[in-house]
Structure formats: structure tokens, C-alpha cells
Amino acid sequence: xxxxxxxxxxxxxxxxxxxxxxxxxxxxxxxxxxxxxxxxxxxxxxxxxxxxxxxxxxxxxxxxxxxxxxxxxxxxxxxxxxxxxxxxxxxxxxxxxxxxxxxxxxxxxxxxxxxxxxxxxxxxxxxxxxxxxxxxxxxxxxxxxxxxxxxxxxxxxxxxxxxxxxxxxxxxxxxxxxxxxxxxxxxxxxxxxxxxxxxxxxxxxxxxxx
Length: 210
Fold this sequence. Notes:
Number of domains: 1
CATH class: Alpha Beta
Oligomer: single chain
């Protein structure tokens, strides 16, 4: 299930977007995370970047990971906490702008970034922060719309420069071991409604062990 909106937070109020919806992106976790479940280990520390209402952070917590969910929307994170309580798991949350947050250095075993779309400069800054925050041997999992998504009209940013390609992701994570890099079809769902077919990048990389 995919997020049909972008994340240009300087021009778009995610707080208002979440406030206008009872449940914007549902509770089903990322297809990428589901596919890589066997590579996650209970007790690992995880950072869920741009986690919104917690569909991915809560799922990670259900796998036994120690999860910090970060998002720019306080409304979304309040729902994430409530969802975690409903699912009987613990979820730490922090409301912050990803571009100004003080990222812990080598602080996490797993970092996820699911449908977080930014300008090229912001994207490189975010991915650089993720690189510095992952522990040696840690996993980075990224899912986001491919540039071809703009042609489909089923959701996502209207500006292709906010989209991803496999090549861009591979360039953003030098020195990492790329375990998976693919462009795959997806279903676009928002507010419980199907918006049609989409196309997404799936990217998994592992940090080298010191």
C-alpha cells in the first residue's frame, strides 16, 4: 500500500493533511518491510523515518524491535501512539523536521524511509543523515515512488524531481552493500480508497562492519 502524497514539508502542511483525515494511509505496513521481515531481529534498534500514523513503526515493534518513530506531524504521531497501544506494543515517538533533527551517530540497527519525498538537495541531506545514523552492519530500507509514477496520475508528487530512481538511491549510499534495488508495481491507497496502479523503488542496503 502506497502513499499518494509527497513530502515537500516547506510548501505542504502535513499536520493539516492528517487532521483532515481519520486515517490517511491505513495500518498495512510497507510491502518492502514485509518482504524483508526475515532479516529483522528482535531487540534491534530501529528508526522509522517519516512514519506518520505508525503503520510501519508499529509493525516493526510487533517484530520485537525497539522503535523510534519520527514525523513532522504531531497529529499523526498521536495516532501512531494510540495504534501501538491498540496492538500492545511500545513505540517511542518524536515530532521533528527530518532536515533539522539532531540525528544520533551510529544509533540504529535498522532505518526505514517509506514514501518520504523531497527535493534533490533535501533528499541527499536526508540520506546522508541516514548514512551517519546507521550502525555498522545495519540495514537501510527505502521505498518511494519512481519517476515513472508521474505518468500514471494515481498519486504522489506532481514534480518528477521529487521522485526516486534506483540509480539515485545507489548514488546516495556510497560504500554500502546493496542487497536489493528494484522498481516494482504497487497499489496506491489513501483514506481507504484505491487510486490505481503505481510504481515504486525498493532499496535495501547494509552498512559495512568496522
